[in-house]
Amino acid sequence: MSVLNENGPSRFLVNVTVGEGVRIFQFVNAYGCAIGDNSKVGTFVEIQKNARIGRNCKISSHSFICEGVEIEDDVFVGHNVTFINDRFPRATASGRLQTEADWQCEPTRVKKGASIGSSVTILCGVTIGEGAIVGAGSMVTKDVPAGAVVAGNPAKVLRKKAPDLE
Question: Which terminus has fewer CB within 10 Å in the chain: N or C?
């Protein structure tokens, strides 16, 4: 693994730990995060500090991966996927702009082999189970069981994944 910083190939990659064979396209803003071997990060993606992307992942363009998100190996993240890490977001606290001390980051985990469709929003504190599929445009508000196919707002289990899709 190597660490990219402001003196490296892009001023938009600061203190990023990058595995072998990683492909990062133009206009990615990433800082203080880790990206595993052979993963691909599309254009216009933001990956914040303390986020982790596993090996062999595909992160499609225009996605937002905030602090506290852990994406395990072999995960597909579609275009325009948004993760959220604050259950009670506010601009101010006691009449001043909030700082990191004024809120609590709630972690989110996407387990191995899961697939997240385009334009999905994932609220904080949930786990998307191994091999699960989240349909495009869904709002994930609670844990998704392993192998489940979910869709909707809020996302609901439609069925278990067919064995030939594993």
Answer: C
Q: What is the pLDDT of residues 19-43, one digit of tens each?
A: 999 999 989 999 999 999 999 999 9
pLDDT attached to residue 11? 56
Q: What's the rounded mean pLDDT across residues 119-127?
A: 98
Distances (CA, A) of 9 to 24, 32, 33, 54, 105: 11, 16, 16, 22, 30
CA distance 31 to 15: 6
Q: Is-contact 97 58, C-beta < 8 A?
A: no
Output the CA–CA distances (angstroms, integers) from residue 96 to 22, 53, 88, 92, in the order listed: 40, 34, 16, 5
- pTM of structure: 0.89
